[in-house]
Structures are given as structure tokens and as C-alpha cells.
Specification:
Layout: E1 2-8, E2 14-20, E3 30-32, E4 37-40, H1 47-50, E5 54-56, E6 62-73, E7 80-90, E8 95-105, E9 111-113, E10 118-121, H2 128-131, E11 135-137, E12 143-154, E13 161-171, E14 176-186, E15 192-194, E16 199-202, H3 209-212, E17 216-218, E18 224-235, E19 242-252, E20 257-267, E21 273-275, E22 280-283, H4 290-293, E23 297-299, E24 305-316, E25 323-333, E26 338-348, E27 354-356, E28 361-364, H5 371-374, E29 378-380, E30 386-400, E31 403-414, E32 419-429, E33 435-437, E34 442-445, H6 452-455, E35 459-461, E36 467-478, E37 485-495, E38 500-510, E39 516-519, E40 522-525, E41 532-533, E42 540-544, E43 552-554, E44 558-559, E45 565-574, E46 580-590, E47 596-598, E48 603-606, E49 613-616, E50 621-623, E51 633-636, E52 646-649, E53 651-660, E54 666-676
Parallel strand pairs: 4-8, 10-14, 16-20, 22-26, 28-32, 34-38, 40-46, 48-54
Antiparallel strand pairs: 1-2, 3-5, 6-7, 7-8, 9-11, 12-13, 13-14, 15-17, 18-19, 19-20, 21-23, 24-25, 25-26, 27-29, 30-31, 31-32, 33-35, 36-37, 37-38, 39-42, 41-44, 43-45, 45-46, 47-50, 49-52, 51-53, 53-54
Length: about 675
């Protein structure tokens, strides 16, 4: 240290001299350690908490105060001793030390936090999961256990009671702490009620709870008795606008009730519901008129739709044919509420021609597969035109030679090189039955054979697989008589692939043949009454019909005297179909019976007194079985000459008569007339 000394007189004259003083610092600072401390294991061991050493240096001043710790473990994790060495160094490098002992112990119980006291419903769970669990923390050794013990104190009724729940937390050093939670369990609260959300509905919507929602309620003990509502309607600014305050009340079976209010705001302030037509991708040649791209639709629940209009904004694309129209549709109801939607119409020419394949076809195995037979694809292009249409075939064999499938791919290409394809499937099979030709319909006599050998046999040809067989089946329909019927003969031809084809032949069977009747002559004899009956068996030799019976009838069967001699009797045989034939039988009628002649009996007559004769009247009767036709010739054959009314002489007179019919048959009779004199 150089010290300059200056002396100054009263006249300000000065003189100076210099003194040199050499100073050295050879001893360390004076240090003072903080007191030894005992702290909780969780407390900070930072010198700010446990104390900081102080030091004083009489010369060069303190450069630094530092510390170094030595940790000695204790009986458990939370117990240990820190020996802290403090060092103070002055600015000349002289240092001084002191020791501080910091003892750390875990003597504090865990910090426990009980869940709050609660009042719960009698039906609620008292499980800590419902009522809350205590929590605990320990600053050093950690929580060993957290337990609870309940003390249940009955209340005024079965549903009311109090649980005193003591929670105990214990750390790993055996320190424990307690807290008390009280659970008040009662059934005094009303049902839990939930109103439906407040609703804003359209003026045309139903205000029924079915539409606006129904309150719900639950009761944990006594159950619900009822949920009711009543409305208070407050008019709004117009007829369609009003507010319904719907007061919902839920009441349990213990009479506890709860309320909630639902507000239903009814307005006609919303715009129509508009639905844009779908975004469209259309061909450059297509019309952008809404009739082609779609028209928006709209509905309004109250005031109806006033108008639907559109406005287009056209954005050019990468080429003349490509552009995008943004079409904004606006629907306005009669209340002036508008709504809009946007339809995007993308117009491009990136697609190939429109190709239409000929329809899938099934053709016969013998048919041509040339497109001239199976059809050509056709194509149109809305912009660039069609340059070519070609086809490529893929043939897939089938289950037999005649069956296969051609998949024909048709490709149409426009002048822009855009191709389009379509597939045509050509099914080639032998599914066609043979071509069958029935024999002609025919009419045969009932006696003729209906066998195909007589009526004709069907013929058939097949274009592919050949004819396997031809069969027939008959259906016989009776006609109007026994000999008439119609056979409907179905002919079926089957080819070797099992395909069939049929045709029908009608064989009309008719009875057109007359019966055959053979007659013979016979003789009849008049009986006593002049009649005889002709029996058919006596004049018919036979009556036959080729298709059944042939009953016969005679033109005359009763014969009388006017039929004497020979009569031609016509015998007619008629079959069931009305065919007839006749023959003539000569019937000779003969009369062999004589007339019946009746003479009076022998008679005795007394002559009148004085007379020698007596008059006698008599009657001779003669009848004949032919008397209806001819008279009987009566001839007196006796020689007496006495006739009826004659005077017969005394004695016996024999009178004789003969009666003769026209056929020469005769009979005779006689009687005696005796006349005797009168005797007084």
C-alpha cells in the first residue's frame, strides 16, 4: 500500500512524501455452523430449511461458503443422519471448516382425508364406491394400508339410519391416523325427475308429449305413483308463435313429489327444407338444364313454398369441354324465409362411347354364331364420335359337344381414344326338341283299327343330336253314341339330349256303317177273335252291327182279317248311332177256323086248338173271326123247306144249316121241331 502524505500551509503551499505499507493475510476466516437439527423425513434438507453457516474474515473478505454432505442410513427408509461440513474461504485462499448434524426421522402419521359426510337414499349402496373412499399420503415411508370400520346407529324408521365410518391410514413405519365419515341414510326425498329438453318446434308440429318428450322419474325406495303434466300457454307475436310452459310433476308412493318445467317454443321462423339434386357429372354434350341435371325440391311445414329458383356460376376447366357449374338453389316460403343449397355440375369428356351389347342369346347348336345372327353391338359418343366397334370371342366348352358358351367382348372406341366394353354371352346348346310331324287328322269307321299302323305314325328329325324315339299317348273322348268317339293322340319325339317335342293327331271314330238285318217269311193264323201277333224272332234271322247292338222293329206286328193272304212286313234294325237297314218279310195270314154256327135247341110246339100245324120262329146265329171283313154265308141244307115263321106240321121236322166264311171254312148245326096237337 503506497500512502502519499501531503502537507499544506495556510497559504496553500504543499509538500508531499510517500509511505509504503506491506499487508498480508495468512489466517482463515472465522466460521459459524448452523445448529444441529432434527427434521421430518419429508422436510427439505436444503440449507434454506436447515440453516446456512456464516463466516467473517478480518482482512480479505469471504470468497465463498460451501457445504458437503455425508448421509448415514437409519433404521428405516425414512430415518437417516446427514453430517454436513461447511467450508468458508477468504479471497486469499485461507479456509476454515465446521460440522452440522441433521437428523431425519419419520414420526409423523400419514395425512388422511375422509370423504365428506353425505345423506343418501335408503336404497342407495353404502359401499365406499358409492359414498366415497378416504385417501391418504405419507411423506416418507409410503402407505401400508387404508381401512374402514362402520358403526351403524338405527334411526326413526327402517329406512333411516346413520353409519359412522372410521377410516384408518397406516404407513410402513407404523404411524397411523384416523378420520370419521358419517353416512345419513333417509327416504325423505322426492323421486328423481328428468324433464324432457326444452323444445323448439315448428308451428305445425304436434305439441303432444309423444312428439316433445315425456318426463321420466325414478324413486329409490317407495316407487312412483304418477307422472302428470299441465300446460300454460303464452301467446307469441303471431298465431304460429307461442310458448307452452309444461309443468311436470312426479309423485312417489310416500307422497314426495318433484317438479320440473319444460319450455316448448313454437315458431315459424325457419326456412323451408331444401334438397338439392345430387351433384352431377355429365357429358360435355349433355344439357345443363335442370330438367336434365335435377331440380331442387323443398317443403315447408307452415307457410308453404313461394318459389324455387337457381343461379349458376360457371368455372372454366382445363379444356373447352371441361367446366364446372356451381348452381345455387334458393327456396323461399310465403313468410320470406329462404334456404339455399349448392349443386355442383361437373362437365367433362373423359368417358368412352356408350356401347350397347346385343342381348345375351341362347341359340341352337346348329345356328350360326356370326354377329349377323347373334346381333351387333352399337355405340354412340356424345362428343367425339365412334371410330370403331370390334369384338373378341372366348369359347368355353360345355358338358357335351353341342353345348358351349361364347363370351364375346365388344369394344367401341371414340375418336379421342376412349374405349368402352360390354360383354355378350352366347349360350349354345341343344335345347330344341326334334321337329315332329304328326300324321294327318283322320276319320275312321268304328270297326276300323285305331292302331298307328292304320291311322299313321308321326315322323321327326333333329338338327343336332338325332331322334332317340317317338311315342304316342291316347286320350279317348266319348261321343254322342257308343260307336262315336274322338281319340286325341299325342305324339312325342325325344332326341338323344332328352329334348322333346309334341304334336297332336285327332282320330275321329264314327259309326257310319248300317246294321245287317236278315229276314225270313212266316205264316200267321187268325185266332178266334180274328187277330194274330207277329213275333220278331219269327221273321228275323239275324240283326248285327259292327260297333254294337242293333235293335230291330217291324212295320206291322198285329194282323187282322183285312191282312189275310200275304203282307210285306218291313223289319228295320237301328244301331246306337242312328244307322238303319231293313229287310222285307212276307207274312202269310191264314184263316183256318170255321164260323161259329148256333142253332136253336130241339123244340116241342103245341099246335093251336083245331089246327094241324104250328108257326115257329127261330133264330140261327153265325159269326166268324173274319166277320169284320167278310159276311158269313148261311145255307139251309135240310129238305123241309121250313124257315123261321113257317107253319110246322104235326110231327118232327129236322132243320139243318151250314155256315161258310170267305175262306171256305164251314160249320153246320141241326135242330128238331116237334109239333103236337092241342089236348084240352
Amino acid at each position: 500500500l503506497s500512502i502519499t502524505w501531503t502537507a499544506t500551509d495556510n497559504c496553500s503551499n504543499t509538500s508531499s512524501c510517500t509511505q509504503t505499507i506491506t499487508i498480508t493475510d495468512t489466517h482463515g476466516p472465522l466460521i459459524s455452523c448452523p445448529a444441529n437439527v432434527a427434521i421430518d423425513c419429508a422436510a427439505s434438507t436444503n440449507p434454506l430449511n436447515t440453516g446456512i453457516a456464516t463466516a467473517f474474515d478480518d482482512c480479505s473478505g469471504i470468497l465463498s461458503i460451501t457445504s458437503a454432505d455425508l448421509n448415514t442410513p437409519g433404521t428405516c427408509v425414512g430415518n437417516h443422519v446427514i453430517t454436513r461440513t461447511w467450508t468458508a474461504t477468504d479471497n486469499c485462499g485461507n479456509a476454515t471448516n465446521c460440522l452440522q448434524t441433521i437428523t431425519l426421522t419419520d414420526t409423523k402419521a400419514p395425512i388422511i382425508n375422509c370423504p365428506g359426510n353425505i345423506s343418501i337414499d335408503c336404497a342407495a349402496s353404502t359401499n365406499p364406491l358409492n359414498t366415497g373412499s378416504a385417501s391418504a399420503s405419507d411423506d416418507c415411508s409410503g402407505i401400508l394400508s387404508l381401512t374402514s370400520a362402520d358403526l351403524d346407529t338405527p334411526g326413526s324408521c327402517a329406512g333411516n339410519h346413520m353409519i359412522s365410518r372410521t377410516w384408518t391410514a397406516t404407513d410402513n413405519c407404523g404411524n397411523s391416523s384416523n378420520c370419521l365419515q358419517q353416512l345419513f341414510i333417509t327416504d325423505t326425498h322426492a323421486p328423481a325427475m328428468t324433464c324432457p329438453p326444452n323444445a323448439n318446434i315448428d308451428c305445425a308440429a304436434s305439441t303432444s308429449a309423444v312428439n316433445t318428450g315425456t318426463a321420466t322419474a325414478t324413486d329409490d325406495c317407495s316407487g312412483l305413483r304418477s307422472i302428470n303434466s299441465f300446460d300454460s300457454d303464452a301467446p307469441g307475436s303471431c298465431v304460429g308463435n307461442h310458448v307452452i310452459s309444461r309443468n311436470w310433476m312426479a309423485t312417489d308412493n310416500c307422497g314426495n313429489s318433484s317438479n320440473c318445467v319444460q319450455t316448448i317454443t313454437i315458431t315459424d321462423t325457419h326456412a323451408p327444407i331444401i334438397t338439392c339434386p345430387s351433384n352431377a357429372n355429365i357429358d360435355c354434350a349433355a344439357s345443363t338444364n335442370p330438367l336434365n341435371t335435377g331440380i331442387a325440391t323443398a317443403t315447408d311445414d307452415c307457410s308453404s313454398i313461394l318459389s324455387i329458383s337457381s343461379a349458376d356460376v360457371n368455372a372454366p376447366g382445363s379444356c373447352a369441354g371441361n367446366h364446372v357449374i356451381s348452381r345455387t338453389w334458393t327456396a323461399t316460403d310465403n313468410c320470406g324465409n329462404p334456404s339455399t343449397c349448392t349443386q355442383t355440375i361437373s362437365i367433362s369428356d373423359t368417358h368412352g362411347p356408350t356401347i350397347t351389347c346385343p342381348g345375351n342369346v341362347s341359340i341352337d347348336c346348329a345356328a350360326s354364331t356370326n354377329p349377323l345372327n347373334t346381333g351387333f353391338a352399337n355405340a354412340t359418343d356424345d362428343c367425339s364420335g365412334v371410330v370403331s366397334i370390334g369384338s373378341v370371342d372366348l369359347d368355353a366348352p360345355g358338358n357335351c359337344v353341342g353345348n358351349h358358351t361364347i363370351t364375346r367382348t365388344w369394344t367401341a372406341t371414340d375418336n379421342c381414344g376412349n374405349p368402352s366394353n360390354c360383354l355378350q354371352t352366347i349360350f349354345i346348346s341343344d335345347t330344341q326338341g326334334p321337329s315332329i310331324t304328326c300324321p294327318a287328322n283322320m276319320t275312321i269307321d268304328c270297326s276300323a283299327s285305331s292302331d298307328p299302323m292304320n291311322t299313321g305314325i308321326a315322323t321327326a328329325t333333329d338338327n343336332c343330336s338325332g331322334v332317340a324315339g317317338i311315342q304316342s299317348t291316347d286320350f279317348d273322348a266319348p261321343g254322342n253314341c257308343l260307336g262315336n268317339h274322338i281319340i286325341s293322340r299325342s305324339w312325342t319325339a325325344t332326341d338323344d339330349c332328352g329334348n322333346i317335342n309334341s304334336c297332336n293327331q285327332l282320330v275321329t271314330v264314327q259309326d257310319t256303317t248300317k246294321p245287317i238285318v236278315v229276314c225270313k217269311s212266316t205264316i200267321l193264323y187268325l185266332d178266334s177273335i180274328g187277330v194274330d201277333t207277329l213275333l220278331l224272332d219269327s221273321i228275323v234271322v239275324s240283326a248285327t252291327d259292327n260297333c254294337g247292338l242293333a235293335p230291330v222293329a217291324a212295320s206291322q206286328t198285329i194282323f187282322r182279317c183285312n191282312d189275310l193272304n200275304t203282307t210285306n212286313v218291313i223289319v228295320t234294325a237301328t244301331d246306337s248311332c242312328g244307322n238303319t237297314s231293313s229287310c222285307i218279310s212276307q207274312v202269310q195270314l191264314i184263316d183256318t177256323l170255321p164260323p161259329v154256327l148256333i142253332c136253336p135247341s130241339d123244340t116241342v110246339i103245341i099246335a093251336p086248338k083245331g089246327e094241324c100245324n104250328a108257326i115257329f120262329d127261330y133264330i140261327i146265329s153265325a159269326t166268324d173271326n173274319t166277320s169284320d171283313c167278310n159276311s158269313v154265308l148261311l145255307i139251309q141244307t135240310d129238305p123241309s123247306g121250313m124257315h123261321s115263321g113257317s107253319a110246322f106240321p104235326f110231327g118232327q121236322t129236322t132243320i139243318s144249316y151250314i155256315a161258310m166264311d170267305a175262306q171256305g171254312n164251314s160249320s153246320s148245326c141241326s135242330f128238331i121241331v116237334t109239333v103236337v096237337p092241342f089236348e084240352p
